[in-house]
Amino acid sequence: MKLDFILNGEDVSCQAEAGDRLSEILRDRFSLLGVKSDCRSGHCGLCLVSLNGRTVPACLVPAFRVRGSEVITIEGFEQTDEYSDLREGFRKSGAEPCEFCRGALLLAAASLLEERPRPEAQEILERLSTVFCRCHDPAALVRGVQTAAELRARRMYFRAHR
Ligand code: FES
Ligand code: FES
To answer: Ligand 2 in contact with 101 (CB < 6 A)?
Structure first.
């Protein structure tokens, strides 16, 4: 089947089989390797992407649902101010997720900040626990997201009062 959709802000098109999943489409057809492919069953969270504004595991999205949708991967998210806030927040807090989980953690954190601009530590831990990782420091990640929340609030204030 032919799939037309918006990927990281651009109109794209590709061929897919009925059994293909969005994670495979992104990695195999578009070489977006920031979308990790691990459990392929919705459990590890490492393949998170934004689909029509909702953060979802791409391995659970069948090809037919991709048609006409808007998809943002970590590669697209890296072009945004929200990414800069999180990158700076993580840097300041000493949170250094590895390349394997970094993209999914940042997308999960970004989706939380969209919903809750000033999240509590417990909310951050709950949201980030949807991404499998045993090695990062939870306290540093909480500080990183809360620092990013402050940077984001400041940026939005200045934008509103420019
Ligand atoms: S590869 Fe998609 S949730 Fe694990
Ligand atoms: S899997 Fe990336 S820091 Fe643990």
So the answer is: yes
The pTM of the full predicted model, rounded to 2 decimals, is: 0.94
Q: Pick from 45, 77, 109: which residue ends a domain?
A: 77
Shared domain check, 47 and 88: no
Residue range 35-87, pLDDT digits in tens: 998 899 999 999 999 999 999 999 999 999 999 999 999 999 999 999 999 99
Structure token pair of residue 88: 């700076």
Query: Which atom of ligand 2 is closest in space to residue 99's alpha carbon?
Result: 2
Listed in sequence order, the DSSP H helices in the chain are 22-24, 30, 63-66, 74-77, 81-93, 99-115, 121-128, 138-160
> Are 96 and 143 members of one domain?
yes
Nearest ligand, CA 136: 2
